[in-house]
Amino acid sequence: MRLWVCIALLSTVLCASAERPRIVQGIVRAGQFVRDAAGGATDMYRAYKDMREANYKGADKYFHARGNYDAARRGPGGAWAAKVISDARENWQSGVSGRGAEDTRADQEANEWGRRGGDPNRYRPKGLPSKY
Q: Is residue 32, in this structure, part of any structural domain at all?
């Protein structure tokens, strides 16, 4: 009996209006953001893995742009994950790699290009296998 009373009350609260209550909408949006962010992190990892596998000179900007592009297409959570991962990677690499500020700036430009929806093929070097 208590179960049916709980179901009736829950149905009344959730279905009283045609719209979902604000708290439910907020929870749904938060869940979508988290799912997009996790998918975006996966996209970034896939691009990194492909870059390491390709081991192709001059292709790093392409993979930066592609990872950010794929992540941002998932939505705000994916774009957020791409920005956080890209910024952390560049901050760490700028102090370790020794390639200099110019390379870091170019990497960040490719990251931004991809996040804004620009075609990653802009940075694709000639001769990179079509697998990538």
A: no
- Tell me the CATH number at 97: 1.10.132.110
Alpha-carbon gap, residue 94 to 99, rounded angstroms: 7
pTM comes to 0.80
Q: How far is CA 80 from CA 15, 45, 95, in A?
A: 33, 15, 23
Question: What residues make up the domain containing 116?
Answer: 37-123
In DSSP notation, 16-68 reads SSSSPPHHHHHHHHHHHHHHHHHHHHHHHHHHHHHHHHH--TT-HHHHHHHHH
For 55-91, write each residue's pLDDT tens digit.
999 999 999 999 999 999 999 999 999 999 999 998 8
The tally of domains found in the chain comes to 1
Q: Is residue 115 part of a domain?
A: yes
d(CA 25, CA 61): 38
**Count of Cβ atoms closer than 10 Å to residue 15 Cβ:** 9
- Cα–Cα dist 58/107, whole Å: 11
